[in-house]
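hey
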């Protein structure tokens, strides 16, 4: 695979343009074209410059290969990368704007028992430009521009563990929040981690005040380890300390994801223990009923039980919401669509939703 031009920030593009003997303003022109979601060959610069660039860089490193539209308006995309790998993303419409869920790795190696992304392990990390490319491609496909964006919010909750690809993810965050680009504010970005404690602490020092989200899904380390292997490495206490550190550095409250799994984590005692863990902390809990994954045996709790769990948390003074599951008819859960795509025999074959 050639390099990814979208990995470069404006300073790096300027250096490249100078090295190619071009006028300095070409860097800004290239940056703007790329941020509009254009392929190199579609940017209005000289043929000579385009040729020089496409010798070294992929013309279009992230292409939308399939789009699925759910009955609730949610769209799911399959993205084709230059080396033939596939990642997926989702665009959800809300009153305040459109939230895109992006992938940070091809597959994942964290091994969570409920998640489809990790079924075949991690294939490779995405570069910063490949993560960004998913957003640029969708913004363009939806008719958005740099002024009138069709992607207003981002969640790093697609395939992959963002903090297992730390450098590229941080570079992506700097690119996507940069002025002159698509310029999405860190406040409109949520990064979800399974709880890689050293990287959480390191990230607190990066000065990127986004919404830090941690996948908790359990109230004791032993129970957590049953569904999340990472719990054998870092304890819930370590995670809570790292969250407190993040809050101290950024002033941003943090969020816990808690997927309700039948017979696993959603009894009254779990709700009470969760409330006890989080009482008085500047945090919010996002409950979601497990999205059933075909290849997995775990089941979601009933809607009634989910509301009961929410009620207990609220009564204990914990800020919490039960999220609607969106786009489940098109494979809304992480990695489902890619898993289906792979199961059906890879590249260029039609996948019906
Ligand atoms: N690796 C990161 C981000 C990707 S997953 C993380 O672990 O946080 C985004 C969220 O979806 C996580 O909270 C993850 O635990 C959750 N998730 C994965 N599979 C799910 C499923 N089948 N049903 C409900 N939530 C799921």
């Amino acid at each position: 695979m050639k390099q990814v031009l979208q990995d470069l920030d404006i300073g790096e593009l300027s250096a490249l343009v100078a090295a190619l003997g071009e006028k300095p303003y070409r860097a800004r022109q290239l940056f703007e074209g790329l941020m509009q979601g254009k392929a190199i060959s579609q940017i209005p610069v000289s043929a000579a410059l385009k040729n020089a660039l496409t010798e070294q860089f992929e013309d279009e490193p992230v292409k939308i290969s399939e789009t699925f539209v759910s009955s609730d308006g949610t769209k799911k995309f399959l993205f084709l990368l230059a080396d033939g790998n596939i990642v997926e993303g989702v665009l959800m419409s809300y009153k305040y704007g459109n939230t895109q869920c992006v992938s940070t790795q091809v597959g994942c190696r964290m091994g969570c028992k409920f998640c489809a992304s990790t079924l075949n392990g991690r294939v490779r990390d995405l570069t910063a430009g490949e993560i960004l490319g998913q957003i640029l491609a969708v913004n363009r496909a939806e008719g958005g521009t740099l002024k009138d964006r069709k992607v207003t919010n981002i969640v790093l909750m697609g395939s992959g563990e963002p903090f297992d690809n730390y450098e590229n993810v941080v570079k992506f965050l700097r690119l996507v929040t940069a002025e002159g680009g698509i310029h999405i504010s860190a406040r409109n970005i949520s990064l979800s981690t399974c709880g890689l404690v050293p990287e959480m602490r390191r990230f607190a020092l990066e000065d990127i005040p986004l919404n830090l989200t941690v996948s908790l899904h359990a109230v004791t380390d032993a129970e957590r380890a049953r569904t999340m292997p990472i719990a054998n490495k870092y304890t819930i206490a370590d995670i809570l300390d790292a969250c407190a550190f993040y809050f101290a550095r950024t002033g941003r409250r943090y969020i816990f994801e808690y997927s309700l799994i039948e017979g696993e984590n959603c009894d009254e005692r779990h709700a009470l223990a969760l409330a006890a863990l989080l009482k008085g902390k500047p945090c919010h809990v996002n409950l979601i009923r497990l999205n059933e994954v075909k290849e997995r045996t775990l089941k979601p709790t009933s809607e009634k039980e989910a509301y009961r769990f929410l009620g207990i948390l609220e009564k204990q003074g914990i800020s919490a919401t039960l999220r609607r599951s969106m786009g489940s008819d098109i494979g809304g859960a992480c990695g489902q669509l890619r898993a289906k795509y792979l199961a059906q025999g890879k590249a260029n074959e039609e996948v019906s939703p």
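Residues 202 and 246 are 9 Å apart (CA to CA). The first helix runs from residue 10 to 19.
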